[in-house]
């Protein structure tokens, strides 16, 4: 199907850009001498993940057990579930392990460690658990020097659970925007996670894997001594938030929302599109960054950004396209963006925008497209 | 299934609250002597819409043709598609009409009116079109005194299209928060839409329907002379944005997200939940209102709000539950919100939060629940 024939709104993946993003990250990981385990929460799409694995990825990271179940069913068996597990989800984890999935769980607290140990003992299953390390204070995890780290390690190790490694995610990297700051945080993430592994090993707990990553720190890292693998998700598509962080150009962004002009408010210089927040998502991640891109940056069908305009407002199924400089002499918006014209809108946050759609349309350089399904829910 | 057995995160509808919200709106419409056409974009769920129709609703409003197709297939045949139609969507509208759906289209510009007329002529179909009127300047529509109103009316009327009515949506009501301001906007919405109908009728165009509405103005209206029907969507579930607008109490909010405590940052007083923005949506609609509720208000399983706490932050699958008063003496959060504890989070925006889930769990007063499917995409 050609772009012009796709019903709008639709989520488009520019396949050439996606392949370039995959190749860039994998080459960087190869240079640093570490394995790469992509986070598939960004796309939840088998076609994308196959391309990541074909490029050299080893295993995947997931944010939900539904992702683990779907990708295991499709043949991916090395899976890190990177959210500290609720005890009530252990039966689903057990079912995956029993089917042969090399599922790794994550914990950051003694109660969850004890719950896994007790559940594994009850069901005769040796779970593999990685301990989450907090290297930047932004969310969850145990800081490298905390007593709790060894407490959790011992609860697992002494109760028949394999401590497979430590993992950390320096998510505060999304708040930075200079190469020096990103490189410094990448080193902080590396050093903290390696230190946590060392403390566990010093206590007699093997802890083979040392897993770090976020898209900005993965791309900024210059040496990863002691690290065995890196995780990143949004790099595969990129978005305006990552552009503001400074790790991609506008023309690296592989996700866009195809939209149609459905009306105008000529006096205001507005064109109204059929892509509102239901299509773009409510993510306004650029609102606190150096450039606020509203709900997105419009581009022509060939991908050329219309840098004088923004999707400045959104209702559920209406997007408002308006000039950035509202005082600029307004051309006739009904002529400039005529009814029925199609545009591609670059999104703030690829993970959030993708989730609004049941499928992507994967667009080749010749303009032909195929549907790539993604899944939804938990 | 009982609440405790539902996998988290999950979207819960409190059926008793929903029925109360439906009854309240329908009774108000009956008192005002107008028909009520609920906007089903909020829930996209047949079970909810059946309850609205059982209470007296006449026809439905939709925001996408997928909603129209799904509800028509389920037996609802009087459908207003309340977004100005892109010409490329006319074949889908035609298919619905040919199957017997009394589908009404909306336009607010001459080019779309001409496109419908030409397409109808080409296919021998008499489309019914309502003209969108702008009564508060917040988005799309033609203002009542504009010349374009009659221009669009004539293009339709003189080219074999039925002008079925006028419709307006005073969406700026979401920015208000006093009964007087809401009542004034309701009157502005009514008067503007009635005036537009009168101008069309004076020009010899019948225009039988006069359709107004948004949840706040529908509930605030005290007289609707000249109006034939009202539309509203979010009233059926309500949310924190509507609570800030002042049209519902916290205990009218019928949608909540069931979540589980998966960890803690004890020094910060945080509990970490398995409901992040993928579950709550990225909607931060209360951030510019009188009370900023973060990503939501936590409640006990029985619905009691924990008013000293907020879901203050969210990553994709992590929510941060923290005390509102960060300087307050912190009890031991690991005891207060122990691992595995389940909570219900009231959302900012029911339309956005519901869209994150493939199904609702409809919870009866006895705590039993059944699944109500909702649909996704366009």
Write the layout of secondary structure elements.
The structure is a homodimer of 378-residue chains.
Chain A: E1 10-14, H1 15-32, E2 35-36, H2 46-54, E3 60-62, H3 65-73, E4 78-81, H4 90-98, E5 102-107, H5 110-123, E6 128-133, H6 147-157, E7 162-168, H7 179-202, E8 209-212, H8 215-220, E9 229-230, H9 240-245, E10 255-265, E11 270-273, H10 277-280, E12 297-299, E13 309-314, E14 319-323, H11 333-336, E15 342-346, H12 350-354, E16 359-363, E17 369-373
Parallel strand pairs in A: 1-16, 2-9, 3-4, 4-5, 5-6, 6-7, 7-8, 8-9
Antiparallel strand pairs in A: 1-10, 10-11, 10-15, 11-14, 12-15, 13-14, 16-17
CATH topology of the largest domain in chain A: TIM Barrel
Q: How many strands appear in the DSSP assignment of chain A?
A: 17
CATH first level of the largest domain in chain A: which class? Alpha Beta
Stretches with pLDDT under 50, minimum 5 residues of chain A: none
- Using the CA coordinates, give the radius of gyration of chain A: 22 Å
Short description:
Two copies of one chain form a homodimer. Chain A has 378 residues and is of the alpha/beta class.
Question: What characteristics describe this protein?
Answer:
homodimer; 378 residues; alpha/beta; TIM Barrel; Lyase, Ornithine Decarboxylase, Chain A, domain 1; 9-stranded mixed sheet; 12 helices
